[in-house]
## 1
Amino acid sequence: MEVYEEQVQASDGLALNYYHWVPENSKAAIVISHGWSEHAGRYHALAEWFAGQGYEVHALDHRGHGKSEGKRGHVNRWLDYAEDLEQLRLSLDQPHQYLLGHSMGGMISILHLLEYPNRFAAVALSGPASDVSIPVSKLKTFLGKTMSSVLPKLSLTNDIDPSVVCSDPKIVDDYVNDPFTHGKVTARWFNEYLKTIERVKQDASDIKTPTAIWHGAGDTLVEPWVSENLFQNLEMEHRQHKLIDDVLHEILLEPNWLETAEDMTAWLSRF
């Protein structure tokens, strides 16, 4: 298996960090879209396991995350995330492609499905952040909407308790001490996120790509009702929604992640 990273320029010149895990004679490719304030390198064990099953795995650090350039937690348009993801997808030699999106990366995946229909054979979503379940103060909402135009790169603080990320204390400790965990969003990011939420609520029924959702039953960062509501808005022929008992938000880093990964490959391999 070949494992390597590379820096690739986005359409606007920003340097994006790509990760590749490529076994010989792959049967399909899986593209991973990671969550907010993290990076694709956290999925190394998962990617190696997928590769061992015969799948190429490719991922990028979203702009403003990990080893990619850009102000931490900032984006001019959420569409930039989808465009970056499509650029990665287009660069792959393997024509049979699946998409796996976690949390914010799940929302980016949904946006990609709307902007670039039917590019992927099927999609697996892990706790997709398709709505806001953590209460946001009226002041922060006001600042996000107002400052998006005036001071778009104004960073807004977050009050997320790291212990809600995963039930495994080591994963939480690694997350807290990871130099690429930035914990930031900007006014423009937040305002664009709110716009994307409304678009997904309105247009989710337009998605035709087979889509499956897995969500931790104990998730308090993106509560289960978020993906349940998303699932109710989906109308494609092949879709499913599963709650995983006794796990929190990072279902692909939880102690039972292998069971979830096996379930995901069973779903994806149908298409």
## 2
Amino acid sequence: MKVTINARQMTVRESLKELVFEKLEKLDKYFQREGEATVTFSRKRNKENLEVTISAANTLFRCEVEDETFQNALDRSIDMIERQIRKNKTRLSKRLREEAFELPYETGGDFEEEPEFHIRHKTFTYKPMSVDEAILQMNLLDHTFFVFKDAETEEVCVVYKRKDGDYGLISPEN
């Protein structure tokens, strides 16, 4: 697996980089073709924060873990991504080409497979508005995201509340 290591406002020790390569090697058994992993280290609120994103066969696996040490965060991250793969194994094997993704036969363990998706369909009308108006509307509705038509670009966009309390904007790429 190709691994990219990023550090936000810090330097990552060589021993920690080697540990990342060693731990991510454990996930190679799920991918016949080479996957790409991005690991980002940062410190937030006196805690070690680790983000792991793996891209394989046009599918993303991602987790973000905050812990006392980067080693603990890395262990938890690997477990979380493996749990994502095992929990959605049937759906993933249907969606992905057989040659791109492989689930070993020893997928036992205490992982319950994700049940069928229950989708609630909702329609609504929307008017063009600014990002600030969309955030205000989202907060008034006490939602974590809000779909709206951007008044400037006339594109359908989504604003959302992030875990860190900030807001995010998703807009289509032109």
## 3
Amino acid sequence: MSPSATAPVDKTPHPNSPQGGLDRYFKITERGSTLVREVRGGFATFFAMAYIIVLNPIILGGAKDMYGHQLDNAQLVTATALVAAFTTLLMGVIGNVPIALAAGLGVNTVVALQLAPRMSWPDAMGMVVLAGFVVMLLVATGLRERVMSAVPLGLRKGIAIGIGLFIMLIGLVDSGFVSRIPDVAETTVPLQLGGDGHLNGWPVLIFVLGTLLTLCLIVRKVPGAILISIVVMTIVAMIINAIADVPSWGLTTPEWPGNPVSTPDFGLVGQISLFGGFGKVGLLTGILFVFTVLLSCFFDAMGTIMGIGDEAKLTDANGNMPGMNKVLFVDGIAVAAGGASSASATTCFVESTAGVGEGARTGFANIVTGGLFALALFLTPIATMVPSQAATPALLAVGFLILSGSIGQIDWADFTIAIPAFLTMMMMPFTYSITNGIGIGFITFTVLRLASGRGREVPAAMYVVSAVFAFYYLMPALGLT
């Protein structure tokens, strides 16, 4: 008998082999993650974006449609949490990426200030649904993925860095560390330190201490650094709020609610009119409204997906992410679902980088985040207890990690890619828009390649998208807005 026939079989699982059905489905081990990291990442992402449950109702609820009607705040809270839970879970199960979704900031302002005043709320939300259908059609035809694949690697890195800088600015603004100088000041300087040029108040101190704690834990490579910081600073904020006179924490107050349980009100779900808006504003204006919502959703999500995919190491050498079509299709569903629930267009959130910073690499983190949004339907007072000053330090830390991992991969010697990448990364924070950063970068890239006699190197999709962006920016001058 040969020695191999009698040798004992080693049944010890390989460290990189799947450890069960859950592991195999979400590819947790395959992507170098663990269940604990995914759970931590899911919690971190939720806390970093839970503010949307409060902020979205404020933006939509404060506007009136052409008939003077306003949306009910309690119903908006339910709609916002519901669609965030549904779409985040869907992205986790189908897309298998740690990218959470919720009502998109910027798009909800367009709906509230541009669409609603010229039609009814159901009409406005119907146009959002139509935009979602168009996104899904573009994905089904492969056009959306072709557009993303046409983006040069250097410009992709510029988009990732721009998102990193953008979320850092979001963190600084949301925490109150910097604020907008009122127009009455008659100054060309748009931002200032704190609320009056100085750092004042307990909330800002919480942010500063939270940032230092987060960075120290990251430097020491402490597992769960971001989540630990959020929890610790929330507790500190609750203690300070209980013993000190704090005028305002912003949208959320760090105190235990008297009644932690709330009853969801689904009254706004399904209140849409798909084509009613066209009867109010006309066919051309209606199409332009849908186009505006579509463009914002299309490229905001594109930039976020590319940036997070890159940071989570889910992309290949060319910057492409496997299973991208599934991710993009779920995003299209999310846009339509947001309109159908009256929560406005739902899109991928850059705050998902907080979870990626905790080590999340798969859709299982989304199961955690989506589950927490589902709980928020009944526990909204608790979900909104974490002050932004305790959660936003995560955005600064992750913004740095994104920048440090991508900036060296841009070919700075090739000005036809370096300049568009530079403009992309600068315009995102300076215009407070991912879409604007991408649009300016695309147009500049196309023009510079043509000017340098390298027009044949520009993919056809880039020419088309650059033309679309140029038209978008010229719309006000043409009287089409």
## 4
Amino acid sequence: MRIVVCVKQTVAGDINPFDACAYEAALQIPESEIILLSMGPEKTYEFLVNLTRLGAKEAYLLCDRAFAGADTLATAYTLSLAVKKLAPDLVICGRQTIDGDTGQTGPSLAMTAGLSLITNVMQIKQTEGQLCCVTRDRGEQYVNYPALITVERMNRLRLPSIRSKRGKVIRWNAQELGADTKKCGIKGSPTKVLASFANEDGKRKCRFVDTSMLDALIEEGVQKEKERTEQGAERLPEKKLKKVWIVGGKCKQMAQNISDDIRVIDREAAESMGQSFIRWFVSMVEKEQPAAILWDSDFWSKQTAPQVAALLRTGLCADCTALETDGEHLYMYRPAFSGNVIAKISCAARPQMATIRTPADGAADIICAFGKGAKNVQPLLEAYVQRKNSEKGPRWEIAASRAAVDAEMLPYEMQVGLTGRSVNPPVYLAVGISGAVHHIEGMKQAGTVIAVNPDRKAPIFEYADYGILAAAEEIFS
């Protein structure tokens, strides 16, 4: 089997962590011919040379000044030209990068290159005949070749052996690819970052309390959510957009902040149409020309929206947390660079599109998240949550930090954070979690945050409403 693995070098110089999983997944497929593909500056050459030591036959570097400054649409276009030249059976991409973290390039590339698509893969189960993968959200999925898959953190990339040999790296520029430079780089990128600033979003004024107050604070947090009104809604603009479509109803409240002319596309009906929905939807958009289209942030929407954007040749801003408008332009705000900054983004093409951070179906009232600091009392914590769920009251759920998942305390599916999932329950109880920015990015939209940690300087307290200075053992043992 001929496999192309798309890889990106991070600012630190190493391989993007999701791409590392993609490479390892390819290496585990028997009798495969693996080709690495990357787009970047000249310094990426040596990065690719070193990666070939793990087993790739060769690597291709798409390197041209015309490619610089590309958004996901322009990136997918350029990569698609290389994929078509290489003609693989399978393309494997990481779910997302950790700098842009949009998760759009894979689905956009699949549409642009004419490949079948499976996203959020946790296991490649079958490669003979049809491709079968186990996904994070929809169980087993089957597609025909040629195909593209995006993978989650499903494995760990092996280290090179002492005797490993370096493979060759081939450079392709715009001319060699036959690229239309108007569709590449900055010229081909409809989304533009207008401004960026330090991300203070989610910071709170923490009040330190005694351990005896824990149950009362949890109950108070749940009650606050029930009583929440729209008094704290964003100030509405004087001028609003005309013709805004939303796919799914969860982003309706944010849509109402920017438009009074809203059309709702039923998400369940859309999903039931399968791949035919995309072509139908694109034809409707081209006919009626809405000013903007907003999508929920569930797995299906994150897979479908980039494919629609690729066909419409428009931009797509991912995981927006706020929207503004002047009546003509939509200004979208989203976290970037691992959540360290907030970017204000506009889209020059029409329709303007964005996915909106929205809560998951059946979300729990209270999430009890375990950090590595809770390892010694994990069974007691799990029993505590189970006991709470056996009572008639709010629904509890267990989650984990990345450190807890890496320590094999809980499975990856439970990880909250930039490389996991985002949650916004009425109450978030963080036990033994230090508060790395990657984790904060996944839980900062929670209602009431209660942190349990013995270190008063732990970053988690900057994002908590209440802090309990204690080790997990002191409370739950």
